[in-house]
Automatic annotation (TrEMBL):
Entry's EC annotation: 2.7.7.6
Catalytic activity: RNA(n) + a ribonucleoside 5'-triphosphate = RNA(n+1) + diphosphate
MF annotations from Gene Ontology: DNA binding; DNA-directed RNA polymerase activity
Protein's UniProt name: DNA-directed RNA polymerase subunit omega
Keyword Phosphoprotein assigned: no
Length: 109
C-alpha cells in the first residue's frame, strides 16, 4: 500500500474533476476504490486474526495475545482506504470506464 503523510489534505476540485470531467464522478470512482481497499484490508486482518481464535468461549481461558494486539495496532496505523484511493486517483494509477460510453458504443453498432 502507498504511504501517505497527512489524513486531512485540501484538494483542488479542478484537478480532482479533470480525469472524469465531473467532481461527482471522480468521487464515485474514488469511493468504489476505497471500498475495494477496505474490503481487502478487512479480509487480510480477519485471516491473520483467525489464527488466534479460540473455540472455547470460557472467560477464564481468554487471554491477551501480544501478537494479536500488534497486528491490530498495525492495521489501525495504516492509512485510511479513502486517502489511499484518492492518492491513486490523483496519480493516475486507477483504471476506470464510464458506463454511458459503453452504452453509446453498443447503440451505434
Amino acid at each position: 500500500m502507498a504511504t501517505t503523510k497527512a489524513s486531512l489534505v485540501t484538494r483542488d476540485l479542478d484537478k480532482l474533476a479533470a480525469p472524469t470531467g465531473n467532481v461527482y464522478a471522480s468521487v464515485a470512482v474514488i469511493s468504489k476504490r476505497a471500498r475495494q481497499l477496505s474490503s481487502q484490508m478487512k479480509d487480510e486482518l480477519s485471516s491473520k486474526l483467525a489464527e488466534f481464535a479460540s473455540t472455547v468461549d470460557n472467560l477464564e481461558e481468554v487471554f491477551e495475545n501480544r501478537e494479536q494486539i500488534e497486528i491490530s495496532k498495525y492495521y489501525e496505523r495504516m492509512p485510511k482506504p479513502s486517502l489511499v484511493a484518492t492518492e491513486e486517483f490523483m496519480n493516475d494509477e486507477l483504471v476506470f470506464r464510464k458506463i454511458e460510453d459503453e452504452e453509446t458504443s453498443t447503440n451505434q453498432l
